[in-house]
Amino acid sequence: MIDQIRNKLNAYLDGELNERSRAQVEEHLQVCADCRDELEGLRSLSERLQAAPLPEFTTPLDFKNQVILQLPRRETKPDQDNSNVSFLYWVPVFILICWIFVQIVFWFSGETILAGIEPQQTQWFAIYQLLFGGSQGIGNLSLLNQIDLYFFNFILQIFIQAVVGILYGAVIYILVRNQNKSSALINGTK
Amino acid sequence: MIGTIQETEEKILCLAQQGDRGAYGELVCRYYENVIRVVYRLCGDVHLSQDVAQEAFIRAWVKLPTYQPKAPFRNWLYRIAVNLALDALRKRPEENIADEDEIFLEAQGMPNPETVYLEKERADMMQTAIRALPEAARTVLVLREYSDLSYEEIANVLDIPMGTVMSRLNYARNRLREILNISWSNGVI
Q: Which of A151, A160, B23, B80 suits a disulfide with B16, CB 3.0-4.6 Å?
């Protein structure tokens, strides 16, 4: 019992005991002179520790000035920049997907979105018509001509989109590289 | 009133996190004395303590964007300062710790040279006794006596269980009393 109480004397002195334990210790202290002496010894030690004088240090103001002079530059938050960049990278992909979707919808509806600006017949069909006229077996060949035209237009558009995408990517790459260079210069890492 | 002070500190912290050096200077001024007191009691050397405190504030500045106000800023700062102080002590051999003769006590209120000398002797002996404690026990004792942290906060700062804080503190105080009683019986304190 006395050992249990002695173990709690430090916590009692520091005000770290709960109400029940504190009451228990106080009750014991009233009847135990050894524990009272022990507590007094601990209290005296704590007071002497607190009262021990400190040497003279630099004043807070001087210290602050010294610290401020030595503070390094902070790096910018990379996460935020990366999120913007990755968003930009996804833009051409999104446009391409939209374009393919629109083309497919128009194809199923029998229309073509690019009608009017693209040739209505392939070169081989034009030559065929020129040589043999427009009567013999024209029905099947006309269908082939339409399919060929469609794939030609489709591949042409994909090609155009790819070129635009590459150009777009190149612009983003140059912008990002310049941004990294300037931030590295600011941070003094290069 | 306390709420206003806390609110102001939150604003200063927020500004400092965004890179405002003036705001951080305010924090340095505010916590310098707390930090230097703890670090000096751990190291026992004025110059080493000031170097460690400076390094602690610089490191805190660098890490400030990652600081999350789950624990008070002061406790976070103590954690950095204590770790740096212990590292510095491990790197530096004991004999290189400055002789206490270099220490100039605050002379305010002690105009009598004899009083100054006695006070200095007392301070030296206390500091020597603290330094004689094992590192783990000394750290807990110093945080308790010189930083006003609760047991729970000390446990968080040092990443140890609260039971360990209590047992180390018990050990440190008992050991310190033994050392100081010897000094006392020799007429030093």
A: B23
Per-position DSSP letters for A151-186, written without gaps between them: HHHHHHHHHHHHHHHHHHHHHHHHHHHHHHHHHHHH
Residues A63, B104: C-beta atoms closer than 8 Å: no
A3 touches chain B (CB under 8 A): no
For the B108-189 domain, the top CATH level (class) is: mainly alpha
Which A positions 69-108 lie with beta carbon below 8 A of chain B? 70-72, 74, 77
**Whether A21 contacts chain B with CB within 8 A:** no
From chain B, the residues in CB contact with A78 under 8 A are none
Instruction: Tally the C-alpha atoms within 13 A of residue B174's C-alpha that lie toward its C-beta.
Output: 11
This complex has an ipTM of 0.80
CATH code for the structural domain at B1-93: 1.10.1740.10
Per-residue pLDDT of chain B (189 residues; tens, 9 = 90+): 555 666 688 889 989 988 899 999 999 999 999 999 999 999 988 999 999 999 999 999 999 988 888 889 999 999 999 999 999 988 876 655 554 444 444 444 555 777 777 777 877 888 889 989 999 999 999 999 999 899 999 999 999 999 999 999 999 999 999 888 765 555 544
Contact A49 B145 (CB under 8 A): yes
- The pTM for the full model equals 0.64
CB atoms within 10 A of CB B98: 15
Rounded to the nearest angstrom, the minimum Cα separation between A8 and chain B is 9
Cβ proximity of B29 and B12 under 8 Å? no
Of the candidates A18, A50, A16, A4, the one whose C-alpha atom is nearest the C-alpha of residue B152 is A16
Alpha-helix residue ranges (DSSP H) falling in B44-112: 46-63, 73-91
Q: Is B98 left (phi over 0), alpha (psi -120 to 50) or beta?
A: beta
The SS3 assignment for A55 reads: strand
Each domain of chain B, given as residue ranges in start order, spans 1-93, 108-189
Nearest to A74 among B65, B119, B123 (CB): B65
